[in-house]
UniProtKB/TrEMBL annotation:
Gene: NCKAP1L
Signal sequence residues: none
Pfam families hit by this protein: Nckap1 (PF09735)
Compositional bias per record (Basic and acidic residues), positions renumbered to this chain: 647-662
Protein name: NCK associated protein 1 like
Disordered as annotated region, ranges: 640-662
A GO term from the CC aspect: SCAR complex
InterPro entries referenced in this protein's UniProt entry, alphabetically: Nck-associated_protein-1
PANTHER family on file: NCK-ASSOCIATED PROTEIN 1, NCK-ASSOCIATED PROTEIN 1-LIKE
GO biological process, one term: cortical actin cytoskeleton organization
Length: 1124
């Protein structure tokens, strides 16, 4: 009996096995064609003689006679066996596959099986698949150039290792030799099967011509349209050949071309065969063998029939069909793609609006997917091999993105509303299919027992389906029913002399084919989608795929569909085969490469548009800055004073806002175009939030975030306009204004797509508070740090720029060499607040660290000066209250001007640091007042006698928030790190004490300097010596904190020495030496005012207050006199 042969099971197993073997052959061919993947010993020159010897003697290789040529193989036999074993086994698999196919085809012929694609669809389809798969395997085997070398070399290594040949080698070698001319050998093999193959192919006459219609006829019958016949909108889509309706036309063409190549006798005797064959030849130039391997069907057919007796007419037919194809085929398929784009768009819109229609119209969806897939694959095959034609544009499509997009949308709809499909078809199966199948079975007058049992089981299985199973989440598995239907077709109803011939009961075949489709809706949705919408061929045509993307991205109307390209890459994993895991790794790399490339290009395009819009908004915002209103104010003032108007040649400057005035709505501005492009590109991101490519989760919006982050960082740095050569830089307030304009514009992006713009801005701006960003590029923090150190503070150290306590800024001095910037425009309260906003606490900490480095370098030099004058300073400290001795010691003291100069530099730097911390405090109070309160309370809670380590930790926290501290923790850390390993604590303490003495006894020299004049307007001295007060207080606090000594005690001693030396100025009658004596006296008051450790009582005990009062009166009187 035929059922005992298990033909159905063998067909399924061999088809799957054949696909695996075919993919293995393709992988071997690609591996040996790629120099990077080719086994290394095959590329060695020393191995060439062995390879040539094997190819020449194959398959009868004389191991003894060729010992000289094969000696290298003997040396590397283990490596050869290890590398070539998988390839050799693959060739053995081909041989075994061939044996099983022979056996099955002979059994089918012996059973005299009946084939008809309309009646026994599954049996006929699997039979034709097996034939084309087998032929494809043999053709792929013939394309592997190194097959003889691989098999022969492996067998040589096996012989050298085991003393005998591999058992499979004789038959395998013979097979390889036989198939050197594969089509000739295949034609001989299929001679006995011609009748069965021809019968199966001719049954396609009922399907293929109807499926291969031009787009005009599709339009005329409103194919795939749900709205064409509104009265049938709710009627289930059904026909007598349901499975044939979504059968890929590419598959049918492969059956016809390869089938008639193998069994060509009927082409000369049967007109129907000729017409079917010629129709397939006119449909294209290439058919797919596997992956990116194609057959040039006209060339192959002509070469095959050339020389055969009686086939001249067929050769003429081939040439005529080829000419017809080149002239007409490109345009025909272009029109089909145009029709399908519109048809799929309509279908998608209707089903998105009414997803319940997916139930009755599921067949339409799979037909649409199958038709679209056929057109995509045709274009891909022919784009890589464009013929010489007058219309090459027919072989490229700039609108491919739209077709791919709607294919993806339909797939997404099927997956999203799978419950609707299952619920509809479950009721269809149990309440219609089961009943009509039962009636059909009852109407069969003769039904053998075994067939009756099978068909009764169909009815029982379908009737048992209930909605409760679906609602409870039960998984359906109806594969057994479909396998039994295939068994019934193969073993019982399609063999010769069958008691129940299926061809005599077409209603049973129609109902069962329809029922099978309905069962697939319950449990095999992914298999159907793989059959009708699988586009993995694009993975093997990367150039074509990238060209399609490039053409679509250039078309503005296609930009909203671009996300379909990376999403197609997510489907490539479904086409892998378990028999070729090596290919899976390569496909994963290629899929990810393509997906990332597409996403990066989409993100880059969108990023460019967003940043162009933001730049334009920033430019418009920049026009509103206060500095641009001067001309407007001047013009208004001139008009009021009736001054002459400008000459006619002068074009009046446009006011901000004129760009929004429109005289004609039809005029499209550049901003309009950019906003349209922005909308289109953002629409593509709404297609999906994430998808998976080979177990890698891809989030498209993250690519956009990454691009924006990278480019925004560059833009913000570029906006600063820093020039290290000329020391030019944009004012912090202007830069902050520009960045705010960018931020405002970027925030509108979240209205288009779901992207976390605040996270992006936080990341970018936080990176700008560090010295380098994530790309290792200098940030705003570094630029402004360099500029303030090199541009502002360096000139302030040279007294070209003065610190102005009254205005809390630095100002330019009236000197001959005028600076290229105004210091107050970069150091006033507003600018430093803007700086604090820009670089934040982290940036100001970096700025502070750089300031501390400059301070420590000055302190190091001060220590050297102290060490040089140590003996004199020790005596001065002991005798500061003895004027005569101090006078003589003063003459021995050197470097007083240098000490004061370096201390002034330290004071200027610390004054600037204090200003930046005050600005930071205001910014922090504005942004996080609830955080500042606890920090301020914690700072105030610290007593002066607290543990110094705890106090410094609290001060570090407070200083980071911009709060003023009695002891500067950054300066303490810098001073502590300055200490050398050789110096002891006592030596450091002694140097610190003597440094204060040095400063105190050097103060009188300031009176000689004419620049020491105190300006009431600025609240300081012209040469910045008022910054000595800040330097003395901060430096002494830091030094004695490090040494754990009393700060107050040493400052008292400093006041005593300084007062004693300054009082001696009053006894000096030389007007030159006492010219700015009063301005110097004020330094003592400044030191006490700024110090948290000293009070006026302490000062008055060593320096009469009346002198200070007189000094203030004198400097104010001088100020009035000069102003008068």
């Amino acid at each position: 009996m035929a059922y005992q042969q298990k033909l159905a099971e063998k067909l399924l197993v061999l088809n799957d096995r054949g696909q695996g073997v075919l993919i293995r052959m393709n992988h071997i061919k690609k591996a040996y064609a790629d120099p990077n993947r080719r086994p290394s010993f095959l590329t060695e020159k020393s191995m060439e003689s062995a390879v040539k010897y094997i190819n020449r003697k194959f398959p009868n290789i004389d191991f003894r006679g060729g010992s000289q040529q094969l000696s290298l193989i003997q040396k590397q036999k283990s490596a050869v066996l290890e590398v070539l074993s998988s390839f050799y086994d693959s060739f053995v698999d081909v041989m075994e596959f061939r044996d099983h196919v022979y056996e099955l085809l002979n059994t089918i012929d012996a059973c005299q099986c009946y084939f008809n694609i309309v009646v026994n669809f599954d049996f006929t389809k699997n039979y034709l698949d097996l034939i084309t798969t087998y032929a494809s395997v043999i053709l792929m085997l013939s394309r592997i150039d190194d097959k003889k070398a691989i098999v022969g070399m492996y067998n040589c290594a096996h012989e050298f290792s085991n003393g005998c040949s591999d058992p499979s080698y004789p038959r395998l070698g013979q097979m390889i030799v036989e198939y050197e001319h594969p089509l000739k050998k295949l034609t001989e093999e299929f001679g006995p099967h011609t009748k069965a193959v021809t019968e199966a192919l001719l049954s396609l006459q009922q399907v293929y011509p109807r499926r291969n219609l031009p787009a005009e006829q599709w339009r005329s019958v409103q194919l795939l349209s749900l709205l064409g016949t509104p009265t049938n909108l709710l009627s289930p889509a059904s026909c007598d050949t349901m499975a044939c309706e979504y059968l890929p036309i590419e598959v049918m063409e492969r059956w016809i071309i390869l089938g008639f190549l193998l069994c060509h006798n009927s082409l000369n005797t049967n007109t129907a065969s000729q017409e079917l064959w010629k129709m397939a030849l006119r449909s294209g130039l290439y058919i797919t063998l596997t992956r990116d391997e194609v057959l040039n069907i006209h060339k192959l057919s002509e070469e095959h029939f050339d020389g055969m007796k009686g086939y001249n007419k067929r050769i003429a037919d081939i040439k005529e069909c080829k000419e017809h194809t080149i002239i007409n085929c490109g345009g025909v398929h272009r029109e089909k793609r145009l029709f399908l784009r519109n048809a799929l768009k309509e279908l998608t819109k209707v089903l998105e609006d009414e997803p319940a229609l997916l139930g009755p119209k599921a067949l339409f969806v799979f037909m649409a997917l199958s038709f679209s897939r056929d057109e995509v694959l045709w274009l891909v095959r022919h784009s890589e091999n464009i013929p010489k034609t007058k219309t090459p544009e027919d072989y490229s499509d700039s609108h491919m993105a739209e077709l791919l997009f709607y294919m993806e949308r339909l797939r997404a709809l099927l997956n999203r509303y799978n419950y609707i499909l299952q619920r509809y078809h479950l009721q269809y199966l149990s309440q219609f299919d089961a009943l009509i199948l039962n009636d059909t079975i009852q109407s069969i007058y003769v039904c053998p027992e075994e067939e009756s049992v099978l068909m009764t089981s169909f009815v029982s299985a379908l009737s048992a389906l209930t909605l409760k199973q679906l609602d409870s989440g039960e998984e359906f598995d109806l594969r057994a029913l479909r396998l039994d239907w295939l068994r019934l077709q193969v073993a019982y109803t399609s063999v010769g002399k069958a008691t129940l011939a299926l061809k005599d009961f077409p209603d049973l075949a129609r109902i069962m084919n329809m029922t099978q489709f309905h069962t697939k809706m319950m449990d095999s949705m992914e298999e159907l989608l793989q059959e009708t919408a699988e586009l993995s061929i694009l993975c093997f045509y990367p150039r074509v795929f990238e060209k399609m993307f490039s053409q679509s991205s250039e078309d503005s109307s296609m930009q909203r569909y671009l996300m379909a390209f990376p999403m197609v890459c997510a489907r490539f994993s479904q086409s892998t085969h378990h028999m070729c895991p090596e290919e899976m790794v390569l496909m994963e790399k290629q899929s990810l490469k393509l997906c990332v490339k597409f996403l990066e290009e989409i993100a880059e395009h969108l990023c460019s548009v967003v940043l162009e819009i933001s730049a334009e908004q920033s430019n418009l915002h920049e026009q509103l800055l206060p500095k641009h209103c001067a001309e407007t104010i001047s013009a208004a003032r001139n008009k009021k004073l009736k001054k002459p108007v400008p000459k006619k040649g002068e074009v009046p400057k446009e006011k901000p806002g004129t760009e929004s005035h429109r005289k004609d709505r039809a005029v499209v501005t550049n901003m309009d175009k950019m906003h349209l492009t922005l909308t289109e590109l953002c629409t593509s991101y709404s297609m999906c939030s994430d998808f998976t490519v080979f177990k890698h989760i891809i989030v498209p919006s993250e690519f956009l975030i990454s691009q924006l982050e990278h480019r925004l960082s560059k833009i913000f740095v570029r906006m600063a306009n820093y020039n290290p050569n000329t020391q030019d830089i944009l004012r912090p307030s202007e830069l902050l204004s520009g960045i705010h304009a960018y931020i405002t514009s970027l925030n509108t992006l979240s209205r288009y797509i779901n992207v976390d713009i605040p996270r992006l801005l936080r990341s970018v701006l936080l990176q700008q508070t560090q010295p380098l960003d994530s790309q290792g590029v200098q940030t705003i923090t570094t630029l402004y740090t360099n500029w303030y150190l090199e541009g502002l503070l360096r000139q302030a150290s040279s007294s070209l720029i003065a610190h102005c306590p009254t205005m809390h800024c630095f100002i330019n001095q009236n000197v001959e060499n005028e600076q290229n910037f105004k210091a107050e425009q970069f150091s006033d309260i507003c600018e430093l607040r803007a700086l604090a906003e820009l670089i934040g606490p982290y940036g100001l900490k970096f700025l502070g660290e750089n300031l501390m480095w400059h301070i420590t370098s000055q302190v190091g030099e001060l220590k050297k000066l102290v060490f040089e004058n140590m003996d004199v300073l020790v005596q001065m400290k002991a005798n500061f209250d003895k004027p005569e001795m101090m006078s003589s010691l003063q003459k021995r003291l050197t470097g007083c001007e240098s000490v004061l100069k370096r201390m002034t530099i330290i004071g200027v730097i610390l004054s600037f640091r204090t200003m930046t911390l005050e600005a930071l405090e205001e910014v922090m109070q504005k942004h996080c007042p609830f955080l500042m309160g606890p920090i301020e309370s914690l700072r105030n809670f610290m007593a002066m006698d607290s543990d110094i380590k705890v106090a410094i930790s609290v001060y570090e926290l407070a200083s980071a928030a911009g709060l003023h501290c009695n002891i500067d923790p950054a300066l303490v850390t810098a001073i502590a790190n300055l200490r050398t390993d050789n110096s002891s604590t006592e030596e450091e303490y002694k140097i610190s004490c003597l440094l204060l003495v040095y400063i105190a006894v050097s103060l009188p020299t300031l009176a000689v300097d004419p620049a020491t004049f105190y300006s009431r307007e600025h609240g300081g001295h012209q040469n910045n010596v008022h910054c000595l007060a800040t330097a003395i207080n901060h430096l002494s606090a830091a030094m004695f904190t490090v040494q754990n000594k009393s700060i107050e005690q040493h400052l008292r001693e400093f006041l005593q020495v300084a007062s004693s030396t300054l009082l001696q100025l009053g006894q000096n009658v030389d007007k030159v030496e006492v010219k700015n004596r009063d301005s110097v006296y004020l330094l003592l008051d400044m030191i006490v005012e700024e110090s948290p450790f000293l009070s006026q009582d302490v000062l008055e005990s060593c320096f009469p207050y009346v002198l200070l009062r007189n000094a203030y009166r004198e400097v104010h009187r001088t100020f009035i006199h000069t102003m008068g």
